Amino acid sequence: MKRSHIIAIVIIAVAVGALIGSLYDSSTYADLDQALEHPGKEYHVVGTLDRSQEIVYEPSLNASLTTFTMRDLNGKTCKVHLAKAKPQDFERSERLVLIGEANENGEFEARDMLMKCPSKYNEENKVTG
Amino acid sequence: MTEYIGEHLWAGQLGHALAVISLVGALLATSGYFHGTRTGQVEWTRLGRLGFRLHSIAVLGIVVTLFVMLFNHWFEYDYVWKHSNLAMPMKYIASCFWEGQEGSFLLWTFWHVVLGNILMWRAKDWEGPVMTVFATVQVFLAIMILGVYIGDVRIGSSPFLLIRELPENLGLPWTGMANYLGAIPQFADGRGLNPLLQNYWMVIHPPTLFLGFASTLVPFAYALAGLWRKDRTGWIAPALPWTFFGIMILGTGILMGGAWAYEALSFGGFWAWDPVENASLVPWITLVAAGHLMIVNKRKPTALFSLFLLTLFTFILVLYSTFLTRSGVLGDTSVHSFTGDGMLPGLLLFLLFYIGLSVMMLLTDMGQRRFYAVISTILLGIGVGLQVQVPAILLFGAVSIGVLVSAYRQGFASKEPEESLWSREFWLFIGSLVLLLSAMQITFSTSVPVFNLLLEPFDKVFGWIGDTTGSSFFKGLADAKLAPPGEAIAHYNKWQIPFAFIVTFLIAFGQYLRWKDTDMKKFRKQLAVSFLVAIGITALGVYLLKYTWSELTLIALFFATTFAIIANAWYIPSVLKGRLKSAGASVAHVGFGLVLLGALISTSRQEEVSRNTRNMDLRFLNEGFSNSEDILLYRGDTVRMGDHYVHYTSKRQTGVNLYYDMDYFAAVPRSYATGDTVRVGDMLFEAKEAHTAGRYFLEDQPKHWTPLERFSRRELWHTEDWSSSAPGERLFGLAPFVQLNPRFGNVAEPSTKHWLQRDLYTHVRYADLALASDTADDTWMPDRLYDKHVGDSIITPTAMAIIDSVYIMRDSVTLRMLGDQYTVYAAQLRVRDLYRPDRWFEARPLVIYANGEPVMGKSAELEPLRIRYSLATVTTDQGPTMGHGGPIPATGGPRIAVGINVAESEFLVMQAIVFPGINILWIGCVLLFIGTFMAVWQRVR
């Protein structure tokens, strides 16, 4: 066997490994039902902030804990403990992506959150006259 | 037609006209250069030149027009309105220019124009084919800037659209008003540049990055030109300096992005493996690999196919990155990706065209090229026609891979004997392949959202495999709802650290190998010293930075980078004999090693010093979140943080920035005098003699302290805890700040203290944004109102208050001073410190009522608890109490309701991270830049 063949095989093996590895490590987008059915498994949950419920952030107790309620795209709501300080303008957020897992109590423990606030642009884009 | 008032229509019309001219120019250049190259007729080439010049002038005109519009604040234009405003300093006009999609495409086009003109001047006999490729790219970019509709599909987006012409506004009533600009207040000022982007980084980072992207087109064009002219090696020499120029500029752009993130954004680091960051890193990696293969193949063509593949791949990856970050496919996965805005079809076409063109040109046979081109066009045409784009693209991909393999076997498979195992070319080749793998891994993981689209047609197949094998992995694939790795940094590090290890190890010895074959005895002798020194430094590093065996991969990388740094530095005096002219590669390699070493040390040994310093009891909380990474500082408070004491002194506003001044003090050992008492747990101790505290109380106690037998509860509460250190002299101050912006949201920006060997990076996570000017007093957080009854208790995070009674004050002084129509109520509170539950306080806030309305009050502050109670209202269930005399009974009769405001002393929440050795990284960046520049310089001359 020529050396170039060995190299080619190694390269292909690593490339396939990397491809499967990236698929394997990837998380899954899910709704709350699915996340709550599988406590302890990591999901990305997309939804909105439920503004009718209280946002609790008590920095003097724990500066990295924000508790709030989210509503997923199916309309289901769930209490969320986010292990981060309350983000600036959280109340104005339009869309949330929570990264974390459900716990045994039917609550979602988020490690991280991506937040999009396009609403503040759109409000002003809608020029009425 | 309405005659609109106050519009500057000529600018938009000029811009549109210039965009059309730039497209026409690019088309002329394409056909002129194409026929000129094919036929060799000078007339055609002249036409090509004319076309490209026309295109260049038009592009410059567009740039100037857009600047004029931004400069004059013509807010009737969507781009101007969206990206600038009146309040913004003029120096950031440039940032506005490239903040949006259209502007950044324009920037990219502009750099292509600059590079293209240099090539027209310098490329000599390569001008024709190289410029043909350039011109085609400019055709695509011109279309993207022009913004055209093909049927219902919008391709690209123009920066010259009026707001009233936007599709979403067409037909709205106000668009018919002639004076809409004056009448509608929103048009008076633009939305403005996001304050996050109002800094000098935004002025210098995008142009550098885009110049880097643009310069990948040069080797791409040369490679295609080489294939076209069937001169497979002649193109390498002219393309080589351009490639290293691209490596230098793109690398600088990427590192600038990292420096920006570190200095001015509160990401908490310089690299986060964000898709947008990856999108610029991946082309750099493949460009580095291509550049090194060029060096190999320039001497003797041994790995031509890999060279072509990597060179072509680099530009395609730039297109793919653009597609990923700008088409909207990344969706929710990146913080700073652009949204779609109709860019997807155009970008996809752009990408597929150049993939197809590259594959086609790698075929040697004319007939096969035509066949492949026809098949691809038909496939994609059917895909679009029948709305089955995804399967069509997949099929196109499969055909292209097949064609690639056959192109290799027909035209490139080498019949010559293989190069020696111990030759420089062999290991350069291996290194390039490892770089390619590293780039592929990053691309795969960044592309997870794209997989969802590509996997969709196979839902049923994967579902079936999942059901028959019971594998949840395949079931997951069938759902096609993949999200990027949750632990992104861990995921990428897991793959990239081994790749980095191999690459740096190769860098260490690569230059000591000779071309063709190496005298191994000499090789070992030359490297032995570096190797041993590297082992020594690694051992020292492991000891000082406390690496454990579980971090073996980090230790290995530490060793490889040190080895690379020393071996390359040693190469200059030992082999080059100090000839700096040819030392570019060595200097760049030292720089690269330092970048990796600095990144390794600073990220693996970063320490969140703000973590857990208050030792607060987190009883009320979820167990999982006890590990707080942020510190809470009350105003005036001095708290131990890492090696320092930090004191929150004041806050002040300058412009839109709200600064929080922090003073840092040295931590010095605390001295106790004879007779001092300290509290440890529930016991009090008295100092036997004057002494300096040691590290632990238990060590000090037998020698220096006697326990007190008898003491009152009061003494226990009021005695300070023992501590080993005390704040010493003030060392420095930091002022992390919050940029106030009601429109885009407030942004916290860090403040960092730099030392030679480490950085202290701090930023505000949460703070009260009120200033003394807004309210009477900014030393308290906003009040929170509790509606309670007598006998109830109020629980706040730090204290519990029991409302014992509410009574009317009837003492003579009060009555005499106020008169009859006033009633003074007092609430008697017992307050318990929740952090020391044996500590009780009393508080008595007052409120004065006149004619049934509260008029003023006097609050009660409890300084040790940093809490303030104010009595807001006193009512019975029937209405305000207006009785006279004595305490109001808590039981029997109407219940007494009180409104009590509770405020905490003003505080903020801060994150502080120590990054050790980060200067190694920055020094590495500078050396990498200098070394690459030296290499380019040497090759240009």
The number of distinct helices of chain A, counting runs of at least 4 residues, comes to 3
CATH T-level fold name of the domain at 28-117 in chain A: OB fold (Dihydrolipoamide Acetyltransferase, E2P)
What Rg of chain B do the Cα atoms give? 35 Å
Low-confidence stretches of chain B: 613-627, 879-887
Number of strands of chain A: 7
Order of helices and strands of chain A: HEHEEEEEEH
Helicity range of chain A: 25-40%
Assign an overall shape of chain A. elongated
How far do the termini of chain A sit from each other?
Answer: 78 Å
Morphology call of chain B: globular
DSSP strand (E) fraction of chain B? 15-25%
Biggest chain-to-chain interface with counts: A-B, 58 and 71 residues
CATH class of the domain at 28-117 in chain A: Mainly Beta
Helicity of chain B, as a percent range = 40-55%
Mean pLDDT of chain B: 87
Please, how many helices of chain B? Answer: 27
Q: What structural class do the secondary elements of chain B suggest?
A: alpha+beta
